[in-house]
Amino acid sequence: MDMLVVRGGRPLRGIVKVGGAKNAALPIMAAALVAEGTTVLHGVPDLVDVTTLSAVLRSLGAHVERRADGALQITVIDQQPCLADYELVRRMRASVCVLGPLLGRRRRACVSLPGGCNIGHRPIDLHLKGLRALGAEITIERGYVFARADRLRGADIYLGGSFGSTVTGTCNVMSAAIFAEGTTTISAAACEPEVVDLGNMLNAMGARIEGLGTPLLRIEGVSNLHSVEHTIIPDRIEAATLMVAAAITRGELTIENVCSAHLAAVTDVLRATGTEVHFSGSKSFVRSTAAPRPVDVTALPYPGVPTDVQAQLTALLALADGISVVTDKVFPDRFMHIPELMRLGANIRREGASAIISGTNRLSGTCVMASDLRASAALLLASLAAEGESVIRRVYHLDRGYEHLERKLNGVGGDIQRVADDPANMPDSLQLSADELSVPAIDSSDTPPPPKFLRRGESQRIHSHVD
Ligand code: EPZ
Q: Best mutation site among 89, 93, 99, 168 for ligand 1, i.e. most ligand atoms within 8 A of its Cβ?
């Protein structure tokens, strides 16, 4: 297991490039199961989650290989397998994305329920509601979803839940509905760019989906789809993370391979903090020279502020010159990063789905523990801004969703070392020194006499510090 040793307090300056979107690549890789032939995907990031899903696809009869030019090539060889095993799904809940493609193309699926997650409850009831509406028979036995459909029929489906739309739920239902006889409408569909990217690839394969990017999708069923070459959209969450990195270190970054339209909400928040943000084509210029101004932020489904950027913005606002309130309406419990940010000196109070942040003018390095993907990014950003050295443990969380993030940050002035998680690698500065450990002995000569108990009617002048 690795840990990151971070020497903070230095502004980041330079040019950094964003990779392909993890949350588009995963459902798109799963959707390659619906096509005949070989699907070629460009811009798939080199992530642990991509490796995990590749293993799931291989277990489902697909040949998956990374070409020398970096493209990911997926060829469906055997249409028989339909089991996505717990041992793989438990490593990445997004494996549930194979449910819709399997049901659509093979008319049966057996997918393990994903299980728990550090950012909150992750049900799939809406996924199952949509697939049942298309005619699937679905049962849940021994932790697995068993789905089968002799035929899929178009339906009018409302896919909204208590926390708004569902991203992978929309992906799953859309990937099955493209094979349903007749017309399907999906209202309260997710509008995230990653869902649009999947829909665009399915349409290139021969599907007939209208309304992508709006809450109302209209799908005409088809019987066969052919494979295509497709390029994954840029990762707006990585882009936002790098924008916050520039802001929190009071640096200046040119961030390449971004789509400004996908970053409108984050840009609005950063500008409200006083951070300069400009765009030119697929480049973003982000600069900060002072403490951020306090702002209130609410994470919402797209086009709102992404919940996947909430932790990073919380880290930035820990250094604001005032009080900010960050609320997450998508994952109300997504605050595991708060206790660790407080170890770095942040002053944050949790109130239900909100974090009340009293900004401080400095963070000081220490040892912290990552708990999930975006929390680990937030801790890394905070450590870059903190004085002195920090250590971030359990960085395997980071590797699930960021492609060599510390390498990218070191390329623009960061000082981050990846080392084995071993006490020998703990920086001396994080070891408490002897005199810090020796609590000064109380000198009995200047100890005030214990208070004497007053007898009824007696009085005692209270010693005042003000002479
Ligand atoms: C996707 O997760 C992303 N993952 C998440 O990114 C992202 O945080 C999330 O969308 C919200 O944008 C991938 O795309 C692989 P949801 P998903 O279904 O699809 C509730 C990251 O860090 N809900 O949109 O699982 C759910 O509990 C990851 O990259 C139901 O109630 O999220 C949540 O409160 C973390 N019933 C809300 O809806 C359902 O059937 C949104 O969930 C499904 C969801």
A: 168
Cα-to-centroid distance, 328 and ligand 1 (Å): 12
3-state secondary structure of 409: helix
Q: What is the pLDDT of residues 423-434, one digit of tens each?
A: 899 998 888 777
Is 375 a pocket residue for ligand 1 (Cβ < 6 Å)? no
Q: What is the pTM of this model?
A: 0.93
- Among protein residues, the one with the nearest Cα to ligand 1's atom 3 is 23
Quick one: CATH architecture of 22-231? Alpha-beta prism (3.65)
Domains of the chain, residue spans = 2-18+234-427, 22-231
CB 95 within 8 A of CB 84: yes
Distance 64 CA to ligand 1 centre (A): 26
Check residue 85 and give its pLDDT.
Answer: 85
Rounded CA Rg of the chain: 26
Helices (H), 206-351: 236-248, 264-272, 310-317, 337-343
Cβ of 371 less than 6 Å from ligand 1 = no
Question: In sequence order, what are the beta bridge partners of 3?
Answer: 393, 419
**Nearest CA-CA partner of 291 in 221, 189, 359:** 359
- The H or E element containing residue 324 is strand 323-328
CATH 3.90.1580.10 assigned to domain 2-18+234-427? The reply is: no
SS3 at position 138: strand
Phi, psi of 197 (to 5 degrees): -60, -45
CA distance 296 to 324: 5
Q: Would you call 117 a catalytic residue per the annotation?
A: yes
pLDDT digits (tens, 9 = 90+) for 216-258: 999 999 999 999 999 999 999 999 999 999 999 999 999 999 9
Phi/psi at 172 (5° precision): -65, -45
